[in-house]
């Protein structure tokens, strides 16, 4: 294991400490060391926006705390759900009396602990509504959306919800916008190598040299198939075919796109992949309105990338373009 760490058992806590020092203008600690809060959280008249999840995906999840973005995030151990108490403390930190939208991924631990937190919130008189992201098109058939994982599409969901809250939407309207965002989003990933959990000290799965795993999950969940490593052009074709046909996306659609590295893929290669994807979308007469290329939702040091695409209407365009500032994403408006 080659990692710049001290004690493997302290990786999450020491990472959080460093993150807070690096981004002290936007994010602050709470009474719970596993809950981070925006300095603009709980503003009067606004709906709170909360998420949470396991560590190892930075900048997700804490990297999207900030102005007109997430108000509070519960932090779990590496690839593990935060406990219910952390989710509840995040909800309390984000609440200004107008309710809290909890927007998180479709993972058993997160769902169980968030449901417990929602009950705790109800007992405390806090109104909470949730949206569960399920944008990973490779993780289950289209007719079983409740079995699909939430991956990088959550970023669009958080951005839309944060903007909706800033524009004065009420809780039901914020949740409706977030649900629309995720319903119109599809993602797929490809892995070229495994990653190592610090506490284990060895890879948590294996991909042979010269192979790739298409449809892999952010924690190394099995994909659709393992094949010989293909060119960026072929990978892009497979990715586009998977997500375009799934919604489906159609000629004339305006879309937002994320090409995210999984932690160890050079930015140069992500731009090569994006170049191929954008060419395919152009030939399909699908218009890229917004594009993000970089490390937006990672998996420790896994090599590979995810492709996320979201269909836009006028409301989604407006909310995506609304100004926001967080460590992981800055939107200046336009």
From TrEMBL:
It comes from the Bacteria. Residues 7-329 form the DhaK domain. SUPFAM superfamilies: DAK1/DegV-like (SSF82549). GO terms for cellular component: cytosol. GO terms for molecular function: glycerone kinase activity. InterPro entries: DhaK_dom (IPR004006), Dihydroxyacetone_Kinase (IPR050861). Keywords: Kinase, Transferase. One of its GO terms (biological process) is glycerol catabolic process. This is Dihydroxyacetone kinase subunit DhaK. It comes from Candidatus Thalassospirochaeta sargassi.
């Amino acid at each position: 294991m080659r990692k710049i760490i001290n004690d493997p058992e302290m990786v999450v806590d020491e990472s959080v400490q460093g993150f807070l020092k690096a981004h002290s203008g936007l994010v602050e600690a709470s009474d719970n060391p596993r809950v981070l809060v925006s300095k603009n959280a709980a503003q009067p008249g606004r709906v709170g926006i909360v998420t949470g999840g396991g560590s190892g995906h930075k900048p997700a999840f804490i990297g999207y705390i900030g102005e007109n973005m997430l108000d509070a995030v519960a932090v779990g151990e590496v690839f593990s759900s935060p406990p219910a108490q952390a989710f509840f403390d995040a909800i309390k930190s984000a609440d200004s009396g107008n309710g809290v939208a909890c927007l998180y991924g479709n993972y058993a631990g997160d769902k169980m602990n968030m449901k417990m937190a929602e009950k705790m919130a109800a007992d405390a008189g806090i109104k909470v509504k949730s949206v569960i992201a399920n944008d990973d098109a490779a993780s289950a058939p289209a007719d079983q959306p409740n079995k699909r994982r939430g991956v990088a599409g959550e970023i669009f969901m958080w951005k839309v919800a944060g903007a909706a809250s800033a524009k004065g939407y009420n809780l039901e309207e914020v949740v409706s916008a977030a649900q629309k965002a995720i319903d119109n989003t599809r993602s797929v990933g490809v892995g070229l190598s495994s990653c190592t959990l610090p506490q284990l000290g060895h890879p948590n799965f294996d991909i042979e040299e010269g192979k790739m795993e298409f449809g892999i999950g952010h924690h190394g969940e099995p994909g659709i198939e393992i094949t010989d490593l293909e060119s960026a052009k072929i990978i892009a074709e497979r990715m586009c075919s998977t997500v375009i046909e799934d919604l489906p996306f159609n000629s004339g659609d305006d879309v937002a796109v994320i090409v995210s590295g999984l932690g160890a893929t050079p930015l140069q290669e992500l731009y090569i992949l994006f170049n191929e994807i954008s060419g395919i979308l152009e030939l399909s007469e699908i218009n890229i309105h917004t594009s993000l290329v970089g490390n937006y939702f990672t998996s420790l040091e896994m090599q590979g990338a995810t492709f996320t695409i979201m269909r836009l209407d006028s409301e989604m365009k407006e909310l995506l373009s609304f100004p926001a500032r967080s460590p992981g994403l800055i939107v200046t408006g336009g």
